[in-house]
Amino acid sequence: MFHAEEMVKVRISGPKNLMKEIIGSLYDLNLLHVNPFKKKENDFFNSGNSFDEASEYSKTLVELRSVIDLLKIRKSKKIKKIENISQANARFVKIFEEVKFLNSELTGLRKEREAIKRKLEEPVLNLNVKPFLLKGYSNVKLFKGVCQSDFEPELKNEVKSYYLMGNNEETANAFILVVPLSEEEKTRKILLSHGFAESEIKFDESKKELESMLASVRKKIRLKRKELRAIKKKHKLFINSFEQALTQLNEKAEAPLQFASSMRSFFVNGWIPAESLQKFENSLSLAAKKRIHIEKFDAGEKAPTKLENPKPTNAFELFLDLYSLPKYYELDPTVLFSITFPLFFGFMLGDVGYGLLVFLISYTGLRLLKPGKQLKNLLTILLLSSISTIFFGFVFAEFFGVEFVHNPLINRVHGITQMLLISVLVGVLHINLGFVLKAVNGFAKHGLMGAIEEGISWILLELGVALVILENFGMISFGLISGGIISLIALVLMVKGEGFAGIIEIPSAVGHIISYARLFGIGLSSVQLALIINNLAGQHIWNGITGFIIGLIVILLGHAINLWLGVMGSFIQSMRLHYVEFFTKFYKGNGIRYMPFGWKRGD
Questions:
Q1: What's the rounded Cα separation, in Å, for the pair 362 and 384?
Q2: What are the boundaries of each domain within the chain?
Q3: More exposed terminus of the chain, fewer Cβ within 10 Å: N or C?
Q4: pTM, rounded to two decimals
Q5: Distance between CA atoms of residues 20 and 50, nearest Å
Q6: Could you give the CA distance from residue 296 to residue 281 in angstroms, rounded to a whole number?
Q7: Contact partners, residue 418, CB within 8 Å, separation at least 6
Q8: How many beta carbons lie within 10 A of that of residue 592, not counting itself?
């Protein structure tokens, strides 16, 4: 529970002609976390080659997943076993060609639609010129488009005769200009100097005709989409099933790339859970007809991490997924996280009303939404945190900011000094728990001296400093000498265990303790905002129907916003206190996730 599941390192070796059978058995067992072979200069073995069929599987998978993306097919747990892969492949080829053809037509129609829309957006089209008036001339040049500035004054000076329509604000600077052919080049230079952008409009296309063409193209697009939806509906189950089967075959076909191989033999290294070792050996030996050899070793520091936590605490593994998994030999802080995170969250939000709302929202989400793993974990965390919020709501006697007991156990608004001291005391306890865990990690890795140098030294330093402070306040008479000696011993042990980097971290440790004051600060801001909302609503709610409605809106909207801010603030700050203040005392992370070779639907 506080450690990753125990692993055993294994090496499997055997004749090369059995490799395909062994890979199939390993895949079905879904237990071996493969350690890919890396060739060294003096190695007799080379990396293996994928099986011949791998390239064909990969090519088909690319096409298959492009169809899945195009048809927007979601993965489903409902799968039909593919009995004959050749027949399935022939069926998919027909589907692929049909989808490819429809998509090509759809792409062309979309381009046509955009071209028509661009034409309809042309300002020149709004000049309402009769098309027949602008066709059939051989001795004039027609310019149509938009200029950024007024070109007509310059045109008057340079061009002897012309006909101009538009070129004003009403037409969005769009114009039609007709000049003699002899004036074409001169006119073009004038227009270009004023930012001329020529229109693509052909005057045999009226606005009405373009709108009719657009409607026709849109209808064709809808029909093509309907055909694609029909294909999706008809073949969705098959496509999902074929994708699963092909993925399995491809993974098996490419597995030899991670094996070591010679002319006649192969071997592969990896890890399996210790509790599954016997099953693993028996199944593999049976599949290989006892023609393989399995060696067993200690897991070692580089073993993968498989977390093992009971429900509902395993929901808090979400925080390790977001941060980093523990190394194989490190303590798993998930269970501790499942206790301290809800307590911090509840202490900050600390209101019975808000706690009940968070409980209802998270419980309803778990029951009705059928959430995926990540969302389910998040809702479970909020559910547990809401229980803590309700508990502290009774401690503070607060219900949506209203104090429902005259003398609560702790008054957040008036007991500022008390709340601040509690917050700092929680920080001291939490951080020292981190040092204890650091000592446990040190013991696991380096024995007793490792525990003393890496974790206990910090606690000794705190004890020494505390004794000196107590004597300065006149509370004891032996603190200065004894505290100084203990502190010096602690510093020597710290330097021996962590180097001078440990001493450099002392000021940050003090800052981390003070940082726990946010436990009080976030909660105080939440309750103060709740009081403001209640007071503001109270000014209106008894002033007739209109006042009642305004007051009700203020209460509902105000408390909804405050709840959102309170939940987000409590959640983020609780995470921060663990990641920054707590984890840095003992947790290195960067563990390798246990990912066994085999089919895992939904991973």
A1: 9
A2: 123-199
A3: C
A4: 0.74
A5: 10
A6: 10
A7: 410, 411
A8: 15
pLDDT digits (tens, 9 = 90+) for 74-111: 888 788 888 899 999 999 999 999 999 999 999 999 99
pLDDT digits (tens, 9 = 90+) for 1-58: 678 899 999 999 999 888 999 999 999 999 999 999 987 756 778 888 899 899 999 9
Maximum distance among all Cα pairs of the chain, rounded to whole angstroms: 115
Indicate the helix (H) or strand (E) that contains 266.
strand 265-273
Residues 88/245, Cβ–Cβ less than 8 Å: yes
What residue ranges in 395-460 does DSSP mark as E strands? Answer: 398-399, 402-403
Is the backbone of residue 40 left (phi > 0), alpha (psi -120 to 50) or beta?
Answer: beta
The CATH class of the 123-199 domain is alpha beta
| Burial per residue of 253-278, b for 16 or more beta-carbon CB atoms within 10 angstroms, e otherwise | bbbbebbbbeeebbbbbbbbbeebbe
Binning pLDDT at 50, 70 and 90, where does residue 468 land?
Answer: confident
What six digits make up the tokens of 465? Answer: 């400093």
Q: Distance between CA 587 and CA 436 in Å, rounded?
A: 12
Nearest of 64, 581, 32, 53 to residue 273 by alpha carbon: 32
In this model, does residue 374 exceed pLDDT 50? yes
HSE value, Cβ hemisphere, 13 Å, CA-based, for 591: 29
DSSP 601: T
C-alpha span between 277 and 446 (Å, rounded)? 28
